[in-house]
Design a protein that fits this description.
The protein is built from 5 helices and 11 strands. The model has no long low-confidence stretch (mean pLDDT 96). The radius of gyration is 16 Å and the shape is elongated. The strands form 2 sheets. Strands 7-11-10-9-6-8 form a 6-stranded mixed beta sheet, with helices on both faces. Strand 3 (48-52) and strand 4 form a beta hairpin. The protein is α+β, with helices and mostly antiparallel strands.
Length: 165
């Protein structure tokens, strides 16, 4: 996707920080979204489509056009993972399945989940971690935590991005 990259305005920064805090139900946006953030703006609509780290030009999150919510990318997930203590925002998978999850990069199945943050809801952004709290992937929950732990079949989370190596 092609963007016009520019500096974020103070109002946009305030809005995206509020959106991130609301989505995660954890106040981390001031720490993970820097004041000098860059934004990728759509050439067609003029609307913000991506939040970009000014240090290394990595996309931290993309903006969902219909809902104006954020799809968290791995670079932002790493920052959140460091700040938010377990079990918040986490879906813990069995260590034996880590290589398969990293190779497939599509879904995490319910039968491979050991635990999940009970405050999450279906559709929420979640961090996929190993039993040792090592960040593996970031994605969107497809089921509620109760359903994930009760069902033994089917996908629990749609993976957006995984660590490499």
């Amino acid at each position: 996707m092609s963007y016009v990259i520019r500096k974020i305005t103070p109002d946009e920064l305030l809005s995206f920080r509020a959106t991130l805090n609301y989505q995660l139900r954890v106040s981390v946006a001031d720490s993970v979204l820097p004041d000098n953030l860059l934004v990728g703006v759509s050439r067609n609509t003029g609307r913000v489509r991506a939040l970009i780290d000014p240090e290394n030009a990595e996309v931290l999150a993309t903006v969902v056009a219909q809902t104006n919510t954020l799809n968290i990318r791995l670079s932002l997930a790493r920052r959140i993972h460091k700040l938010v203590p377990p079990p918040r925002l986490r879906l813990v998978v069995v260590n034996e399945m880590v290589p398969d999850i990293l190779e497939a990069k599509s879904s995490v199945f319910s039968k491979h989940v050991l635990s999940v943050d009970e405050e999450l809801r279906a559709g929420d952004e979640a961090l996929v971690v190993s039993e040792d709290d090592e960040l593996l992937c970031v994605g969107k929950l497809l089921l509620s935590p109760e359903e994930i732990l009760q069902l033994l079949t089917g996908p629990a989370l749609k993976i957006r991005e995984c660590v490499t190596g």
